[in-house]
Amino acid sequence: MAAGFLLALLFPLLLSGVLPSSSLHSSPLLIPSDASALLDFKLKADLKGNKLLGFSSNSSSGFCKWFGVRCRGNRVVRFACEGMGLDGTFAPATLTRLDQLRALSLQGNSLAGPIPDLSGLVNLKILYLDHNIFSGLVPPSISTLRRLKIVDLSSNNLTGAIPASFDRMGRLYYLRLDSNRLTGSVPPLNQTTLRIFNVSHNALSGPIPVTAALSRFRRTAFRSNPDLCGEIIHRECRPVQPFFRPSPATPTPPPLPPSQNAQLHNGGGGGYNSDKKPKKAERKRHILIVGLSTGFFVLICSALCFAMAASRRSKSKESFPSSPGPKIAMDTDAVMRIEQESCELEEKVRRVQEVMGKSGSLVFPAGEAQGYTLEQLLRASAELLGRGTMGTTYKAVLDNRLIVCVKRLDAGRMRGTGKEEFERHMGSVAGLRHPNLVPLRAYFQAKEERLLVYDYQPNGSLSSLIHGSKSSRAKPLHWTSCLKIAEDVGQGLSYIHQAWRLVHGNLKSSNVLLGPDFEACISDYCLSVHASPFPDDDPPNSGPSSSAACYAAPEARKPNRHHQPTSKSDVYSYGVVLMELLTGKHPSEHPPGSMEDDAVADWVRWSRGDGGGGDEEEENGRHKLEMILEVAMACRAASPEQRPTMWQVLKMIQEIKDAAAAVMDDEENDLLTTADP
Questions:
Q1: Integer CA distances (angstroms), 561 to 295, 435, 553, 558, in order
Q2: Which of 233, 265, 286 is the last residue of a domain?
Q3: Is the CB of residue 146 less than 8 Å from the CB of residue 170?
Q4: How confident is the model at residue 239 (pLDDT cuts 50, 70, 90)?
Q5: Which residues pair with 445 in a beta bridge?
Q6: Rounded CA gap, 84 and 498, in Å?
């Protein structure tokens, strides 16, 4: 009778949703509201039920001791569930019921679907939802959270515009929306508090508002938005033209016959859509026009070379006529060089025409702005950057002054990969967007020809930074630089492993590039999975700094066996890169993995020229180097099972960084990590 009376009292609460039905079958009888919110979140976010094992209604009275939960006065004020592999959704009316929450971090998972309405988190100051696969719009409710200082929604699949109401967030200090698929304009943010801002790698357009706040940021905060313009990024905004009308502001080429002019105006230029194939007749006419133009250019070059060769055969030394000014004497060697360059030019034109004649198109990933065509890419001036295990890399300067990096994949290595398989894989790789990955912008394949187009990174590779040039002696980097680069590479690699369940397969210092602000960005990722091995590990002339065998895990070096790359073999390669960072020594000079830890530590100190002693600051730096070395040695464990995951490695690196920041009393770190009541 008593039990029936209690049920009658609780029944209205069950109907209203205030009390979860599970409360009647748990101990204690009533689950605290914050514990209920966490359990509801787990139900939708942890679909397999094996990530948040400690979250249980049976232990709800001790929910403040659950993983990632911090309480004050028995209310949740901080919840951090990072890199846990959550693959569900951030369901509405779950965590958003935590009205005392100050800091929320769900970064580094695989949470999908839209971000829910967050207006219930009235006390929230810090929000990290980056490195997931959230889709849909940026929730406008974020701008209603008046205490919010830090917002990071980067590296997701968010679409739509940046809410204009963001300019009313008076305390905003940190805003990252980069590496999404956002469109529309940049709102006129002008908060005096705004210090960190990034909207790069989206599809934003129009002029950037010139406000005091936005003017503080470098062009890198806006890069890879081809349709943005304005004073801040030094890109002129051109007036909008009717769709079918050529822009008079666009530089025009030399006059062509009327039929060719009309063809170029209607079918060429930056508005070319690679996904929509032109009719066969139009394609042939387009190829013919480009072929005639390039052929005409080659004909002029050949005639010029013939005239110079005739001049060389004359008995008296002639001067080459030029525009008004001093005449340039042409000696025999110079003429021979020009003749050779002319022949090389003809060969290049022939190859270009062959490629253009093949059936294929430049494929841009979904949501990627189509800023150039295949024809423009093939017309670009090219500079050889290097040859590696996967192919040859060029710097290409397009006629619109856009600079891209083009990798021509080695046909022999990709021979076993069919067209459809290659397209499926490139579709997955093209979806990777992270500040520490060089983004794949487009790809092309036709028969044996496969090209990948990436952003150009202006500061070279990590290998060049570590080992210097032939004219300069290599010197080990300062420990703070080692830590920064280690974290950058760890962030990118962890994102590949955690968010997309892919592997790099070819990590080495020459595949880590340095961006405009010397941020480390990983390149050549996820290509080795479909590549056949070289008999001698590396192609000829690849150089010692790109020797893949030195970075390969022990299980990948077994003879007569093609090892399929794994996340643990990536971790081993990362450990080798860390050792290279610490010592300035190429991996071929590193001690074997069987060496005792103390002996390795001594060797690292010797490599850095560290004889001990020094002041307190030097001793602190030495201690941080030893901590990084411990991470490197854990990554270089002989057995894959003994190596940590990349997310665990990243957490170790970040703990070292936090310890260093605490010693240095870094004000910015205090702001990012402290949530006052």
A1: 49, 35, 13, 6
A2: 233
A3: yes
A4: low
A5: 450
A6: 8
**Structural domain contains residue 282:** no
The single-letter DSSP state of residue 375 is H
* Domain assignment of residue 453, yes or no: no
- 119 exposure class (CB count in 10 Å sphere: 0-12, 13-18, 19+): middle
Coil, helix or strand at residue 581:
helix
- Establish how many alpha carbons lie within 13 A of residue 520's alpha carbon, considering only the half-sphere containing its beta carbon: 27
3-state secondary structure of 652: helix
Distance CA 639, CA 568 (A): 9
The CA distance from 376 to 270, in Å, is 9
Domain assignment present for residue 257? The answer is: no
* Tokens linked to 436: 């520490």
Per residue in 313-338, pLDDT (tens digit) is: 443 333 333 333 333 333 445 445 44
**234, HSE (Cβ side, Cα atoms, 13 Å):** 4
pLDDT value at 143 more than 50: yes
Per-residue model confidence as pLDDT tens digits over 146-164:
999 999 999 999 999 999 9
Please identify which residue in the block is written with the tokens 């929320």: 104
Q: What is the pLDDT of residues 247-288, one digit of tens each?
A: 344 444 444 444 333 333 333 333 333 333 444 444 444 444
Which CATH number belongs to the domain containing residue 111 in this structure?
3.80.10.10
> In terms of C-beta density within 10 A (0-12 exposed, 13-18 middle, 19 or more buried), how is residue 206 classed?
middle
Q: Are 505 and 529 in contact (CB under 8 A)?
A: yes
For 185-202, the three-class secondary structure string (H helix, E strand, C coil) is: CCCCCCCCCCCEEECCCC
* Structural domain of 158: 31-233
Residue 576 belongs to a domain with what CATH number? Answer: 1.10.510.10
Whether the per-residue pLDDT at 592 is higher than 60: the answer is yes
**Total structural domains within the chain:** 2
Token pair recorded at residue 351: 């190859």
Q: How far are the Cα atoms of 352, 370, 375, 452, 616 from residue 286, in angstroms, in the given order?
A: 14, 19, 10, 23, 70
- In sign, the C-alpha dihedral spanning 659, 74, 45, 126 is negative
Residues in the chain: 677
Q: What distance in Å separates the CA atoms of residue 494 and residue 476, rounded to the nearest whole number?
A: 25
Among candidate residues 360, 338, 355, 352, the one with its CA nearest the CA of residue 381: 352
Mean predicted confidence (pLDDT) in 79-100:
91
Instruction: Judge whether 406 and 453 are in contact, CB under 8 Å.
Output: yes
**Does position 98 have pLDDT exceeding 60, yes or no?**
yes
Q: Is 20 inside any structural domain? A: no
- Of the three residues 233, 255, 286, the one that is the final residue of a domain is 233
Check pLDDT > 80 for residue 412: no
Q: What pLDDT, on the 0 to 100 scale, is given for residue 85?
A: 83
Is-above-0.70 flag for pTM? no
